[in-house]
Amino acid sequence: MLNLNLLRIYRVVLDQGSFSRAAETLSITQSAVSRAVQELERQLGMPLLERRARGVVPTEAGALLGEHARRIFAHEQVALEALNELRDLRRGRLSIGASSTIGIYLLPSMLGEYHRLYPGIELFLDIGNTQQVMEHLRSYRIEVAYVEGPVASDEHVQIVPWRDDELVVIAAPDHPLAQRTDLVAADLVAMPFVLREPGSGTREVMEQALAARGIAVRTVMELGSTEAVKQAVSAGLGLSIVSWATIQMELDSARLVALDVADLSIRRQLSRAHVRDRPQSRALQEWLKLAGR
Amino acid sequence: MLNLNLLRIYRVVLDQGSFSRAAETLSITQSAVSRAVQELERQLGMPLLERRARGVVPTEAGALLGEHARRIFAHEQVALEALNELRDLRRGRLSIGASSTIGIYLLPSMLGEYHRLYPGIELFLDIGNTQQVMEHLRSYRIEVAYVEGPVASDEHVQIVPWRDDELVVIAAPDHPLAQRTDLVAADLVAMPFVLREPGSGTREVMEQALAARGIAVRTVMELGSTEAVKQAVSAGLGLSIVSWATIQMELDSARLVALDVADLSIRRQLSRAHVRDRPQSRALQEWLKLAGR
DNA sequence: TAAAAATACTCCATAGGTATTTTAT
DNA sequence: ATAAAATACCTATGGAGTATTTTTA
User: Fold this and answer.
1) Taken in order A206, A212, A213, A214, is the CA torsion positive or negative?
2) Which residues of chain B fall below pLDDT 50?
3) Is the predicted pLDDT of residue A26 greater than 80, yes or no?
4) What b/e sequence results for B160-187 when a residue is b if at least 16 CB atoms lie within 10 Å of its CB, and e otherwise?
5) Which of A262, B5, B109, B237 has its CA at 20 to 30 Å from residue B245's CA atom?
6) Of B68, B79, B278, which has the smallest distance from its Cβ to A2's Cβ?
7) Touching check for A69 and chain B: CB below 8 Å?
8) How far from chain centre, in Å, is Cα B168?
């Protein structure tokens, strides 16, 4: 095993062609350089330098070792540069998990902005239901998770409130209730509703909100995605309740309307989850600034 | 600048996947490993390992650094192996200088043997006159010089007696003196002689020997190489005096004969020369064993 | 509760400094 | 006479050990 500290000094001696100039370059004394090279020669059991009147000249072994040393230290620089790239976010990886509403409707534009800022960072977005995403977080497949379901911190995972989400009742533009401006929750009783599948975070919040107000609706259809629900509502199959974030485009293009139900404000907390004490990558730290908290 | 001692420990931690196993491999304590990695992380200003229940897992930076470390230490091994090859004479270089007689007639067969023993060593044989060869020795172009001329040690160069050389009078097989068995030096007086050029070591020794015995010969021709002299003598142009070593083949093929002149034994010292205090390569050390002293 | 990592302390060999001597031109 | 390298001697600290505590599955 080579003593690389000594080798480093030796390499400078070769570069400078003399012990004293190497000492200067290294900001140590000539004495220290002299002993370092001697010690290296002793450890290797072979002379490396011929001490001539004008400076030093490598022996065959010395020249050979010098060339290898050059490569070793060149590679050291490559390693440092690679770490700097990571530090400066010129390269890296960011793996985010999100439950579907967040992953599909909220994150993409933010990820776009992030990518414009840090084009060298590879982005991974893992979309699944809350349980899946939390599982991926625990098994270190993602570094942060965004979820809508009611999850709680535990000893491994820390949950941080992220932002509020508002759910609205949606209808087709030609729905009987679409023009009403004086709607109250009671008007929804027995209305046909299109729902997400059981287990969906959105459905859970929706059912709680309606149940809390004693409103029983009529389920006409259960669908596995928000997109499908929106299509069904747009086609006039019934009403539904979805996150504001998911219908921006449909409101603009007048394919859906949001009903303004006076006493039915449904809000929920969107959360960010981390593994406790897990060191955060620089890429994540910058993402958190951009994504709010 | 990376602390490569710490990096070496860190690399073992990655290989072993845990601090305590790394400590075992390194024959140091777990405590030391723990502190080494912490110090490396401190110096780089970034965490490298996530400490999990079952051992450790590298962060992105940690994995990146680990890969570079692998290459750095792999290259260290390459360097060590290269030095070992040099040490074991599996590679290397041997530069020998010799004055012409030695270089042409004595060294080649020995170099052949050396090459069979150490096929990895590159051989360089620099043939010139004594002055040229000694100059190349002083300017470090060759590591050892073999010369015939009367050279003396000085403060830079050390001359060591190598072996004796005997010079003999040669003639064409049909020369009038060729059959005589009772020759004495006086019989050579006024005989036609073929000589090497002035400055040749052989010519110098020859002239001294004849002059010492008061014998004046007749110069019929001066030639620039021993080969040319032999050709001329063989063609019957006259006698000459050359080293035994140079005429083995001609004696065997009866193209020349050596005259047995009772009172004319001409011996000279062949010498080996080195630059004082210059470290000797392993390749040279082995050569000296093979070449005698 | 057991295994791994971190921490507190102690020690010393190494790598450095200063001062001087030796070597080579 | 000068400049470079080697050497002698001294010092400080980084890297190691032991013992113990903390952490986590």
Assistant:
1) positive
2) none
3) yes
4) eebeebebbbbbbeebebbeeeebebeb
5) B237
6) B79
7) yes
8) 29
Decide: residue B127, CB within 10 A, 0-12 exposed, 13-18 middle, 19+ buried: middle
Mean pLDDT of chain A: 91
Q: Give the pLDDT score at A121.
A: 96
Question: How far is the C-alpha of A65 from the C-alpha of A62, rounded, in Å?
Answer: 5
Provide the sign of the torsion angle of the four alpha carbons B192, B194, B197, B200, taken in this order.
negative
Query: Exposed/middle/buried for B96, CB within 10 Å: 0-12, 13-18, 19+?
Result: buried
* Token pair listed for A148: 């809508």
Token reading at B109: 């067969």
Percent of chain A with pLDDT over 90: 74
Residue by residue, DSSP assigns A261-274 as -TT--EEEEEEEEE
Residues in A closer than 8 angstroms to B75, CB to CB, are 68, 71-72, 75
pLDDT at A278: 82
pLDDT at residue number A275: 87
pLDDT tens across A66-105, in order? 999 999 999 999 999 999 999 999 999 999 999 988 999 9
| A189 confidence band (pLDDT: 50, 70, 90) | very high
Both tokens assigned to A204? 């859970």
Can you tell me the distance from the alpha carbon of B292 to that of A199, in angstroms, rounded to the nearest whole number? 93
The answer to whether A152 contacts chain B (CB < 8 Å) is no
- The pTM for the full model equals 0.83
Q: Look at residue B101 and give its three-state secondary structure.
A: helix
Question: What Cα–Cα distance (Å) separates residue A137 from each residue in A125, A140, A274?
Answer: 12, 5, 7
pLDDT tens profile B8-50: 999 999 999 889 999 999 999 999 999 999 999 999 999 999 8
- Residue pair A146/A103 in contact by the 8 Å Cβ criterion: yes
Measured N-to-C along each axis, helices A282-291 and A107-117 cross at an angle, to the nearest 10 degrees, of 130
A281–B92 C-beta distance less than 8 A: no
